[in-house]
Automatic annotation (TrEMBL):
A Pfam family per the record: UreE_C
Family annotation (Gene3D superfamilies): Urease metallochaperone UreE, N-terminal domain, UreE, C-terminal domain
Cytoplasm is among the record's keywords: yes
GO cellular component: cytoplasm
Superkingdom field: Bacteria
Record-given protein name: Urease accessory protein UreE
Gene name, Swiss-Prot/TrEMBL: ureE
């Protein structure tokens, strides 16, 4: 089975033949070594040196130089909004206090669909509407940044204990 041993980040793509694509949800985009099959049927082994986050628009580089395109699958999320920026910051603080993955946009926050958190948000004056879209949560303070094609990059996720 051919191996994919490197990730070509979205902002660096411009060379190589794209021969297939994989569509993965947020959880399945955190990988190091796993057998995969592209949408077009190409079997390959993802075999990275260390765990990595595969981002929408990245490509996996096969041993022969061909590429497999990475696409983020749509997921059921909550789109959280608030009446003003300060209220949104407060909601972000409450969501962050629960240590769940969150994608922070200019005027909204996206989290995995959760009826308990939806009620909390509504109780704090925000809105929480179900949507279906790719999920691109923040990497976290200990993850080494983020990679969405705008200059920073993901590392592996680490956790720390609270006293």
């Amino acid at each position: 089975m051919i191996r994919a041993t490197r990730i070509l980040r979205a902002h660096a793509i411009g060379w190589g033949e794209i021969v297939d694509r994989i569509v993965l949800d947020h959880g399945d985009r955190h990988r190091r070594r796993v057998a995969m099959r592209g949408v077009g049927g190409l079997p390959f082994l993802l075999d990275l040196i260390e765990p990595a986050v595969l981002e929408d628009g990245d490509a996996l580089v096969l041993e022969d130089g061909r590429l497999v395109w990475v696409e983020a699958a749509p997921e059921r999320l909550l789109e959280i909004r608030a009446p003003d920026p300060l209220a949104l910051k407060r909601l972000i603080w409450h969501i962050g206090n629960r240590h769940i993955p969150a994608e922070i946009a200019e005027d909204a926050v996206f989290i995995a669909e959760d009826h308990v958190l939806a009620e909390m948000v509504r109780g704090l004056g925000g809105t929480a509407e179900p949507v279906e879209r790719p999920f691109r949560p923040e990497g976290g303070a200990y993850a080494g940044g983020h990679e969405h094609g705008h200059g920073h990059h993901h590392g592996s996720h680490a956790h720390h204990a609270h006293d």
